[in-house]
Amino acid sequence: MNQILLHQPGVASQTETACRCCGGQSLHPFLDLGFTPLADRLIRPEDGDTPELTFPLVVAFCPDCALVQILETVAPEILFADAYPYYSSFSPALLEHSRANVLQRLAERELGPSSLVVELASNDGYLLKNYVEHGVPVCGIDPADGPAAAARKVGVPTLCDFFTEEFASKFVGEHGRADIVHANNVLAHVADTNGFVAGIRNLLKPDGVAVIEMPYLLRLIEHVEFDTIYHEHLCYFSVTALDNLFRRHGLFLNRVEELEIHGGSLRIFVEPFEATGESVETLMAHEKAIGLDTLDFFAEFSARVDTLKEKLLALIYTLKSEGHSIAAYGAAAKGATMLNYCGLNTRQLDFVVDRNVNKQGMLMPGAHLPILPPEELVARKPDFVLMLAWNFADEILAQQQEYRDAGGRFIIPVPEPRIVE
Ligand code: JHZ
Ligand code: ZN
């Protein structure tokens, strides 16, 4: 792996030929989503005519460590640093989920004014603020300056930087080690996976725990959540692949929980000593039984993605031919993959709504749908709304009762396109 190229000015991406975790040379591609623009790189309306950078999006399986990964690594400075539009706090369900996570940790461990909780990719402070409320010292680390500034505003001390092995050493020298390290939906985002995990190892006290969340590969495959594949997500984890990765760094998966969030996630508890619990053994045995650690498991996936695309397009073209208007909900990163892979744009969809004020007024990457506030659904009354943020479908359907009462209907695209009144 040659990560050095990424730091040369002007080099936007590189194609990996070896496994990004174990270095294995036998990567097997099993899904090609074509050249796509960057999913979180929203377009300013005045730049609407400027060609966008697109990058290959090919997914591969490593038989040596069972890790599913994309082959292209886009320079993190391009992906995350400037104008990154994702703010966790726009999703009430995520806030509730994070608060419950913190309350469970507080119930399990004796944490007080001399403890330290660190979060990697702490975004706008959505999680750590719950520790602050309980008088537990925290430090957030996040490279995106907008969300980091928002975190400081709500009283969450935040260092605006990428977390790397070197950063960890410096941090430990200045602040000491942590009792708890949180890292939610970030492990898949880092180009130097091994450096990141080595940094966590260094950051943890001997009796510390890293509580890490990521989407679960098994659910992605089962529910055809192919739209969660985009350049920010370099890895797609099974418990087996995670176990292989952490063990190489003297860290052990001792407990795992399955979560509903983001279409099905894992929360793993990683410690610097081995005490493998039943939850880990059960899930790993299940993965072995169904063959999630073999290439065969992924053989049909590409065809299933195409079937979903065909069904969705057939539905949308039928609705359009009947004279219906269609909008979309959620300027989510996954929405960009869904629109671009299906070839949907302003010819079929009039606009997309999103609560995030930082996204409103911009255009979706590739598809160029204008992003408007959710109130526009009631105001403009499109006949149908394609639910791009399907992971928050229940919450959004409840919130849009007025639009639905007025006859508005939603199209939920995964695992199979269906209409909800
Ligand atoms: P949401 C994000 O992906 C970002 P995205 C990131 N790449 C990642 O790894 C995954 O999460 C896990 C809006 N919304 O969170 C907010 C409403 O408008 O599913 C978001 O823009 N109203 C780091 O971007 C979008 O929808 C609402 O009521 O695919 C949802 O995006 C709710 C609940 C959300 O993730
Ligand atoms: Zn590997």
Topology overview:
Layout: E1 13-15, E2 28-37, E3 54-61, E4 68-70, E5 72-74, H1 76-81, H2 92-108, E6 117-120, H3 128-133, E7 138-141, H4 145-153, E8 158-159, H5 165-175, E9 178-184, H6 193-203, E10 204-215, H7 217-222, E11 235-236, H8 239-247, E12 252-259, E13 265-271, H9 278-290, H10 301-321, E14 326-329, H11 333-342, E15 352-353, E16 371-372, H12 375-380, E17 384-387, H13 393-399, H14 401-405, E18 409-412, E19 418-420
Parallel strand pairs: 6-7, 6-9, 7-8, 9-10, 14-15, 14-17, 15-16, 17-18
Antiparallel strand pairs: 1-5, 2-3, 3-4, 4-11, 10-13, 12-13, 18-19
The structure holds ligand JHZ and zinc ion.
The site of zinc ion has 8 residues, from loops.
Helix coverage percent of residues?
25-40%
Query: How many H/I helices?
Result: 14
Average the pLDDT over all residues and give the rounded result: 95
- Count all strands and give the number: 19
Report, as a whole number of angstroms, the end-to-end distance: 50 Å
As a percent range, the share of strand residues is 15-25%
Instruction: Determine the oligomeric state from the structure.
Output: single chain
Briefly note the structural class of the backbone.
alpha/beta
